[in-house]
Specification:
The complex is a heterodimer of chains A (about 110) and B (about 120).
Chain A (H helix, E strand, L loop, with lengths): L3 E4 L2 E3 L5 E8 L7 E6 L6 E5 L3 E2 L7 E6 L2 E7 L7 E7 L6 E2 L3 E4 L1
Parallel strand pairs in A: 2-11
Antiparallel strand pairs in A: 1-3, 3-8, 4-5, 4-9, 5-6, 7-8, 9-10, 9-11
Chain B lengths: L2 E5 L2 E3 L5 E8 L6 E8 L5 E7 L6 E3 L7 E6 L4 E6 L8 E9 L8 E2 L3 E5 L2
Parallel strand pairs in B: 2-11
Antiparallel strand pairs in B: 1-3, 3-8, 4-5, 4-9, 5-6, 7-8, 9-10, 9-11
Classes of the chains: A mainly beta (about 110), B mainly beta (about 120).
C-alpha cells in the first residue's frame, strides 16, 4: 500500500498568515492527490483534487501543488473559519490511503 | 441537493456482526462509485472499502478483507457494509462517500457518519 506522510502534525498560526502543509507519498502517485478539511463533528470537505484543482465553492485562498511524491497545500491569508484538521488523500489505485492529518490552530 | 445518510451503527460485542446502510439522494446514484471511510475516536481517516457504480467491482483495505462486504442496491439508492468478526479496533465512525465512476476522482461528498462501538 502507498503510505502518505503529512507534516507537520500540528501547526500554530495567526490570522492572515500564509500556511503550508506538506504531504509525501511512499511512491509516485502522479497527480492523484486530494486535500480535505475536517472540522470537529463534521464530515470531511473536499478542497483540492488532482493535486492543484480547486473544488467548486472552495475559497481561492486554498491552493495545492506538487506531483509524483511531494505535495503541498497552501492557505494564503488564514481565516478563523480555516481552523480545522487537514488530510491529504491519494487515489492513484484501488487501495486508497489518507495522510495522518494536520491540525491547524491559532 | 446531494445527501448521504448513514444508519445501522451501534454497540456490538467482539466477534459480532452489523450491517450499515447509506441512503443516497439528490444525484444519479448508479453513476457514482461509493465507498466507506472510518475514523476511530480521536484518530485520522482510514479507507475501508469501495464499490463501482454498477456494483461489479469491489475493493477492500487489508484490515477488513475477508470480514467486511460492501454492496449496493441501485433500485433503492442504498449502499451497504456488512461487517462480521468485529474487533475492538473496528470501533469508529463510519462515513459513506461518493466519487464519479468514470476516471480517477476522489470522494467529493460524504455523509455525517454512524458510530460503531465494538465492546463487551
Amino acid at each position: 500500500d502507498i503510505q502518505m506522510t503529512q507534516s507537520p502534525s500540528t501547526l500554530s498560526a495567526s490570522i492572515r498568515d500564509r500556511v503550508t502543509i506538506t504531504c509525501r507519498a511512499s511512491q509516485s502517485i502522479s497527480s492523484w492527490l486530494a486535500w480535505y478539511q475536517q472540522k470537529p463533528g463534521q464530515a470531511p470537505k473536499l478542497l483540492i483534487y488532482k493535486a492543484s484543482s480547486l473544488q467548486s465553492g472552495v475559497p481561492s485562498r486554498f491552493s495545492g501543488s506538487g506531483s509524483g511524491t511531494e505535495f503541498t497545500l497552501t492557505i494564503t491569508g488564514l481565516q478563523p473559519d480555516d481552523i480545522a484538521t487537514y488530510y491529504c488523500h491519494q487515489y492513484s489505485g484501488f487501495s486508497l490511503t489518507f495522510g495522518g492529518g494536520t491540525r491547524v490552530e491559532i | 441537493e446531494v445527501q448521504l445518510l448513514e444508519s445501522g451503527g451501534g454497540l456490538v460485542q467482539p466477534g459480532g456482526s452489523l450491517r450499515l446502510s447509506c441512503a443516497a439522494s439528490g444525484f444519479s446514484f448508479s453513476s457514482y462509485a461509493m465507498g466507506w471511510v472510518r475514523q476511530a475516536p480521536g484518530k485520522g481517516l482510514e479507507w475501508v472499502s469501495d464499490i463501482s457504480g454498477r456494483g461489479e467491482t469491489t475493493h477492500y483495505a487489508d484490515s477488513v478483507k475477508g470480514r467486511f462486504t460492501i454492496s449496493r442496491d441501485n433500485s433503492k439508492n442504498t449502499l451497504y457494509l456488512q461487517m462480521s468478526s468485529l474487533r475492538g479496533d473496528d470501533t469508529a465512525v463510519y462515513n459513506c462517500a461518493r466519487r464519479p465512476d468514470s476516471g480517477w476522482f476522489p470522494y467529493d461528498y460524504w455523509g455525517q457518519g454512524t458510530l460503531v462501538t465494538v465492546s463487551s
